[in-house]
# Entry
Amino acid sequence: MQVAIYFFICVDLSLALFEEPALFPLPFLATSIAEVLCLIAFFGRLVHFAKVTPQMVFWKDTKNICIMVTIALTLIDLIIYGSLEAVNIHSVRWSRALRPVFLINFPESRQIRRTFRSIRNTLPDILYVFLLFMFSVLIFSLMALKLLGDRGLRTVEGLPYFTNILEIAFELYVLVTTANSPDVMMPAYNFNWWYSLYFITYIIINTYIFMSVFLAVVYNNYRKHLKNEIRKLAYLKRHKMMEAFNILKVKVGSEFVVMEARWRRLARTVMPHISSPHLELLLRISDEGQKGYVDKMNFLRLADLLNIQVVTMNIKRHPLEEWMPWVYQSSASLLIQRMVRHRIFVWVYDIIILINAIFIALDEKNPFISYAEWLFLSLYIIEILLKLYTYEPRAYFGKKQFWNWFDMLIIVAALVATVANTTIQSASKYNSQQVLDIVLILRILRLLRVIVSIQRFRLIVTTLINIGPTILTFGGLILVVYYVFAIIGMEAFHGKVRFFDPNFTTPDALVCGNPALKDSAFARDRYCKNNFNDLASSFIVLMELTVVNQWHILADGFALVTHQAAKLYFISFHVVVVILIVNIFIAFILEAFFMAYSLEKSEVETAIERKIQELGVGIQEEEMHDGKLVDNMDAKDSGFSGDDGDKQRKALKGLYFRIASKKYRTVDALLQQMFESEIAPEDEGPPLDEILNFSPSDIYPKVPNFENSA
# Structure
C-alpha cells in the first residue's frame, strides 16, 4: 500500500513536466486523466484508512481533512480549466501548487510532517526577530534616502542612485545576503569615503548580528521542541510497556512478574525473525538470576533490548584452510597472513594511494603516466587478492563491509574501463572521451579509501551516515517548497524570458527575447537560460536563489519583464528557504554532530555487552578498531597480529556477539537515548493525558536558579 501511494504521489508531482509550460508536452486530456487516476488512488487510500480507524479519530485528524479538501479543489480546478480550454480561453492551473499536500499528509510521510512541525513551532519566535530585522532595514533605508537621495548620484548603468525608498529597501535587503557587495556601496563611496561607514555599520548590525540571532533563535527553538517531542515519545513508550506488564503479570511471592515462557512468546511475536541465540542472550540479561521469570524493571526495557542491534558472528575457517591445511598453515603462508593483518600493510597502501593521487594530477598523455596507471591498478588487485587469501571471503564481503565492497567495485570497474579504453584506442584512431572520463572518475574515487584509515575522518563519515535518512527528510521538505514556488513561478513568469543559442547575435537573442531587458544586467550577463519556462528550469533557478549569489540580478530581471512587485516572490523564497529552512537544517546538523561526539553507550547497551562478556561469547567493538579481531574482517577494522592472534583465532569457534557499530544507529534513536538517560529506571512517568499535553516550556524551570537550571 505504501509503495502504491508513493508511486501515485510521484506520478502526480511529475505531471508538471508534461503540462504547459512543459519540458515534455502532452495533451491536456492525457495529463488530466493521469491526475484523475491519482486522485482516485488517494481517495481509495483515504477510504481504506477510514475503514480501519475509529470514526471520531478519523474525522478529528486534520491530515484527512486536508487530503479531502485538496482532492475536491483539484477536481474543481480541472473542470474549470478544461471548460475554458475547450473554448480557447487560457486560465491558471492554481491547484497544481497544492499537489505536495498529498506528499505531506499521508501517514507514510510522518518524518516530513515532523519537520514542518519544527518550522511551525519555530515561527512565532523567529517572527519577532524578523520584524525587528525589517524595522532595522527600513530605518537604514530612510537614512540612505536622506543622506544620498539629493546628491544627484548615478549607478554604473546611469540610473538614479538611492532616490526611491522601495528600491533602497530592496538593495539593502540584498546587501544582507552580500550578493550586491560592494557594488551597491560604490557610487556613495566614490563620492565621499565617509559614506562607507554607513554601509559598514549596516553590514555589522544586519548581516553579522541579525543573521546570527536568526540561527540562534532557530536552533534554540528547534532543540526545545525536538526535546519535547522525544520526551513525549519516551514517556509514551514507558506508559505502553507498563500497560503490557499489567496485562501479562502474575504474582510470584510478594512481587508481580512475567513468566519466562510468556516473555519468550511476546519477544517472538514482536520480532518473528530473531535468532534463538540472540533471544537466549536477551533472556539471560532480563533474568539475571535464572529464576524462570522477568521482573517489572527488566520487562520495561524489553523494547530497548529489541531495538539494539546485536550482531551474531559465526566464526568460520578459511576455505583454503579446510581444503589445503598443509599449504595454508605453512610457515610462508602464515608469514603472508601476518603481513596482511599488520597495520603497516594498511599504511603502505595509504601511501600508494597518495602517490597515485599525484600521478592522477599529472598529464594523462605522457606515456610514463599511462604505464604507471597500470602499475597502480596491479598493486590494488594484488591487495584484494592478498586480503581474500588472508580473510574468510564470505565475511570479507559481508552485508556491513561497505568499504570492502567499495574497494572491489571501484578496482574492477577501473580495470574494465581501462581495458576498454586501451582496446578502443589500439583498434582505431578513435578515442572514446566518455570511456576516458569514466576511467578518470573511477581513479579519483579510489582516493576516498584514505578516509577509512583516519579515525577522525571515520567519525565524520559515520555521523553523515547516521543523519542520512533525516537529510533525505529535509530533501523532501525542500522538494515541497521548491515545487510550490516553481509552480507559482511558472504561472507568473513563463514565456517572459527565452533562451537562444549563444551563437545567435540577433537583437532578440541579446535581450533574452524581451525588449524590457535591454541594457539590464540580466541580459548583459546572458542569464537567458535562467527562466521559468518548464519545471526543470524553474528548479535550477530556485537552486541559484538558494545559493544567493547574484540572486538580485535574477529578481531585477523578472521584475523588469513583469512588475516591480515580482521582487516579493524572490524575497519570500529567500525568507522561507535560506533564513528558515536552511537554518533549521544547520540546527539539525549541529545537534547530530554534538551527539555523535559526546554520547556514550546507553545503560541497556552496557548491560548487553556485560552479559556477552560474562558468557564468554563477546567480541568488543574497541578490539575491532584496534585491529585484534578474527580473520573474517577487513584489516582496517580487524585482524590479529602475531602468534597470540593466531592462537586466539584458533580458539574462537561457533557463535559470537557484539553490539552493532554506532554507524548503524539512527539520529532518532540517539535523541531518544539522550533523553531516556535522564529518566530514572523506576520512574513510571505522569498520566497519559499529561504526557499528551506536554509543552516545551515544561522542560525548563519557571523561576530558574543555579540548582534547578543545572
Q: What stands out?
A: DSSP finds 35 helices and five strands in the chain.
